[in-house]
Write a structure and sequence with these properties.
This is SEC-C domain-containing protein. There is one protein chain. The chain folds into two domains: 122 residues, Ubiquitin Conjugating Enzyme (Roll); 75 residues, no CATH class. Strand 1 and strand 2 form a beta hairpin. Helix 5 packs antiparallel against helix 7. By secondary structure, it is an alpha+beta fold.
Length: 216
């Protein structure tokens, strides 16, 4: 319990983040968390000013073990899935799986601003100038999830279905057991990273991904 006049973890962290993002302020939302509002200035690697965005970040009360939500409020970015932004300005800053995995160990407001918020807007401005994102992009909707499984977890669709099925069946698999992908190798020599990564996401995400993979 936070004592009167004692800062919360979020408030302490925000004080550090404010050094790098001085145009942001926060307000406390009773029993829900915090709302961060203000401006983020974007510069290129050489320090040349590129642009400014009005933003809002909703930070749930379970901070830092949660994924904040970023909204672009200045309407500078077209409300189009091709720009990874929703009709309400909600920004898709990364694949949900990576964010959820990171949230298990905590996402500080400083890390969220520097690793996700700032790059999201910098990438948008880069795309406007160069007609492409600086480091590529994920496909939209579940195609992006499928791409994540293939490129980062090294699981083809068939392999992903088998690994997810093992998790949903609550199979107790040790590192020395055969990998659920049915390669014939032990898990520790095959998809151990993918298996351990997916274990942290929980049954709801396993079922959702499994169902989407099965739809083809």
């Amino acid at each position: 319990m936070v004592k009167p006049n004692q800062k919360t973890v979020f408030e302490r962290d925000f004080g550090e983040a404010a050094d790098a993002f001085p145009k942001l302020r926060y307000t406390t939302v009773a029993k829900k968390g915090w709302r961060v509002n203000g401006e983020v200035d974007i510069c290129d690697p050489a320090g040349m000013y590129w642009g400014t965005f009005q933003i809002e970040i909703l930070v749930p009360i379970s901070y830092p073990y949660v994924v904040p939500l970023l909204y672009e409020k200045s309407d500078d970015i077209p409300r189009d899935i091709d720009y990874h932004i929703g009709d309400d300005g909600l920004c898709c800053v990364d694949i949900d799986h990576r964010l959820l995995y990171r949230a298990k160990s905590g996402i500080s407001i400083q890390a969220y601003l520097s690793k996700w918020v700032y790059p999201f807007f910098a990438n948008y401005l880069y795309r406007e100038r160069e007609k492409k994102y600086a480091n590529g992009e994920y496909s939209h909707r579940f195609d992006g999830v499928r791409q994540f499984y293939q490129e980062e977890l090294h699981l083809t669709t068939d392999m992903a279905v088998k690994v997810l099925q093992a998790l949903l069946n609550k199979d107790k698999i040790s590192r020395n057991d055969p990998c659920p992908c049915e390669s014939g190798d032990k898990l520790k020599r095959c998809h151990v990273y993918a298996f351990e990564f997916l274990k942290t996401l929980g049954r709801t995400k396993w079922q959702s991904d499994f169902d989407n993979f099965m739809k083809g």
